[in-house]
Structure formats: structure tokens, C-alpha cells
Amino acid sequence: MKPLSTRATTIRPSPTLSLNAQLAARGAAGEEVLNLSVGEPDFPMPELARDYALKAIAEGRNRYTDVGGVPELRERIKRKLAEDNGLEYAPGDIVVANGAKHALFNAFLALCEDGDEVVVPAPYWVTYPEQVRVTGAEPVIVPTGAGLKLTADQLAAAVTPRTKAVVLSSPGNPTGATYSRSELEALAEVVVRHDLFVVEDLIYEYFHYDDGAVPSIASLGPELKDRTVVVNGVSKSCAMTGWRVGYTAAPPEIAQLIRRLQGQATSNVSVVAQYAAIGAMDDVPWEAIKSYRDRRDLAHQRLTAIEGVRCGLPTGAFYLFPDISTLLGNRTTDEFCSELLAEQGVGLVPGSGFGAPEHVRLSYAVAPSVLETALDRLATFVAG
Ligand code: PMP
Fold first, then answer.
1. Burial 350-379 (b: 16+ CB within 10 A, else e)
2. Which of 40, 101, 104 to mutate to test the pocket of ligand 1 (most atoms within 8 A of CB)?
3. Which GO molecular function, any one, fits this protein according to its record (predicted)?
């Protein structure tokens, strides 16, 4: 037989998805699993999202929609971007995709090709480098050090004549770190000077525990908006990960290419999910989102009480990403996590998949009682 696609075979499977499948299988087999590896909120989706979905079904909305999404949803997203981010887009510049993951994929496909480089700050969300690779471009991993955020100097040092774009995620997964306006301004100067594009992932935007809104680099002025693809969606903010609704907002030329790509790949997102997303955006579960701040504090306090664990207090998302290097001995983080799971039934994600092999990712999007028990067991495991 002829060989299969090199491009496809060099893509690494998502470590978070395979770990979750493994943990689910243990749970199904009757073993107790305290799963702190989840990447989705545990609160219910908004009522209005459900109502709008049921209404769409009852009204017989069964047909293809515009590739980029129904006009009502794109109008709603347009309003959201204006109100939350100070960004003015035409509805045609917005393309609704199957989750933020698909939206990101569309963005990378529209921007990158063989020979390009894309700067991916580490720790990174596992999917960025792999999606970049699919386009034929090369992800250039830039370690951010203790600050966990890319600095202007680090970006400038990573730029080569082949650099096409930089990925920014704020608040970040797995770091929970949020870029301030002044940090973005410093990065923006480098971006403009070197004529780069920015792929800006704001999927955790509403999970922000400091005062004020999460700033978007695209909002820093037309020079930035013209070179940025903003990615967002309802998966995390409205606890609708299974509904698969995300979107890009991009300059017209890029948005047209994204439309074209999506038009030949998937066409529109499920029409029912699109209507659900309108309801979701009108009924964001703010109270539930805000309550995650207490969980963050609880998890952080318990975690940092364990000797040897080093972890700053993240400002966003729902993850802690401690450095556990002093606890590893001669184990890798992957081995540490496997042993923890086997001995204590606690599931954490090793940092290796995020480009930070001395860290683990812990999600606090679980019931506080689970969080407390899991962290007690982690303490026992470490002490033992
Ligand atoms: N970006 C980041 C940083 C994420 O963590 C995730 C989900 N884990 C996504 C994008 C994808 O979101 P969606 O479920 O909407 O595809």
C-alpha cells in the first residue's frame, strides 16, 4: 500500500482528549476517579439556549444556512464584540465555526502555508502547534519563563523573515494568565514592526477574576485589527462544549478566505446549535462564572500548602498550572500523573503536552468537595 499522508501522520493526538477518555473508562469500570483534568465548566447551560434550540426544531429549521452562520447569530456576535471588546465588525467578517477549535483551524489555514513560522508561546494549549503543522507551517515554540506570558522582547527575538503570525491566548489554557493592555501594547509594537498576523484566542474571556474586561490586541487600533483574527465561542462561557459553536472575526480579506475554506469543508454549523448560541449569548450564566473565583482561591490555597509546589495565582480561565519539579525525583511528570492516578484515583494532566514538562494542569471546574478531596489525596501522595 502507498504511504498515508505525512502531514496527517505527524500530527500528535490531543493528550487532554485521550486522558479524558482514559479517565472516563476507569469511571465506567466502577473505579473512583477524581477528575481534575476537565476542560469544561460544570454548571448547566443557559435556559434560553435550550429554549432557542427547541424553538428552532419546532419551527422546522432544518436546512442549510449561510456558510458563515444565520444572520441573527452573526448580528448577535457583532454586538458582543462591540460591547465587550470595543471591536466593530461587519456581520460578513464573522464566520461561525464548529467550536473555537475549528475557528482556530480556519484561521491558521487562511494565514499559513509551507515554509511559514508561527510563534506559539509556551506553555501553550496542546492544539495550536498541531493545527499550525497541518497547514505546512512550523510552530516556533517560545518558552515564556516564570511570567507565563510572552513578552515583547521574547517575541522580537523569535521573529525571522519567515514568521507569519503569533498566537495569543488570554486568559490562557493551561496558564490562566491574562495579558494586560500595556503588555499587549508592547507586543503590538513588535507585531506591526515585523508585519505579523495575530491569532487571538479569547475563549476564556469571561473567566476573568481581576477587575475590568480582558483586553483584546485587536482593539488597540486599526493597524492591529487589520492583522488580527479574533477567536471566541460559547463553549466555555455558557458551558456548551458539546454544541460546537465558535467563531472568527477577521479583516474582510481573511474572513472571505475562511468562508471559502469552510464552504468546502463543513459548510454551516448545525442550525439548531446556532440558534442555541443566540439564546446563550443573551443569558450568560454570570453568577456561575463568577463563583469560579472562590474555587480558584480554594484550589490555590490547598495546592500551595503542599510543600514543594510552586504556583502563582492565575487571573483567569479555570486551571492552575503548578511547577512540581521539586516533587518529581527521577520521574517524569507523565509518570508522576500515572502514579497519582493509580494510587489515589486523582486525574491531573501532565505539562508535557503543553510544552512545560515540569508542570501539571489542574482544573478547578469541579465541585468544591471533589476539589478538596482530590487535593488532600495529592498531598497524601506527595508526602508518601
Ligand atoms: N482554545 C482554548 C485555549 C481551549 O482551551 C479550547 C478548549 N479546550 C478551545 C480553544 C476550543 O474550544 P471549543 O470547544 O469551542 O472548540
1. bbbbbbbbbbbbbbbbbeeebbebbbebbb
2. 101
3. pyridoxal phosphate binding
* Residue that is written with C-alpha cell 474555587 in the block: 295
- At residue 197 the predicted structure's pLDDT band, cuts being 50, 70 and 90, is very high
- Of 127, 243, 248, the residue with max ligand 1 atoms within 8 A of its CB, to mutate for a pocket test, comes to 127
Whether ligand 1 lies within 6 angstroms of the CB of 178 is answered as no
Does the structure's ipTM exceed the value 0.95?
A: yes
Q: To test ligand 1's pocket by mutation, which of 125, 202, 240, 321 has the most ligand atoms within 8 angstroms of CB? A: 125
Amino acid at 147: G
User: Does the C-beta of 233 come closer than 6 Å to ligand 1?
Assistant: yes
Q: How far is the centre of ligand 1, averaged over its atoms, from the C-alpha of 203 (Å)?
A: 6
What distance in angstroms lies between residue 261's CA and the mean position of ligand 1's atoms? 20
Closest to 42 (Cα-Cα) out of 325, 236, 252, 321? 236
- Asked whether 201 lines ligand 1 (CB < 6 A), one says yes
Q: Which domains does the chain possess? A: 6-44+285-383 (3.90.1150.10), 63-281 (3.40.640.10)
Rounded to the nearest whole angstrom, what is the distance from the C-alpha of residue 138 to the centroid of ligand 1? 21
Could you tell me the pTM of the whole model? 0.97
Q: Which residue has the higher pLDDT, 229 or 17?
A: 229
How would DSSP label each residue in 118-143? EEEEES--THHHHHHHHTT-EEEEEE
Q: Which residue has the cell 428552532?
A: 56
Give the number of other CB atoms < 10 A from CB of residue 252: 12
Check if the beta carbon of residue 165 is closer than 8 Å to that of residue 119.
yes
- State the average pLDDT over residues 163-178: 98
Helix segments in 29-98, DSSP class H: 47-58, 71-85
pLDDT value of position 95: 98
Give the whole-number percent of the chain exceeding pLDDT 70.
100
Residue 169 CA, closest ligand 1 atom number: 3
Reported confidence tier of residue 350, pLDDT bands at 50, 70, 90: very high
Residue 29 has pLDDT above 90, yes or no: no
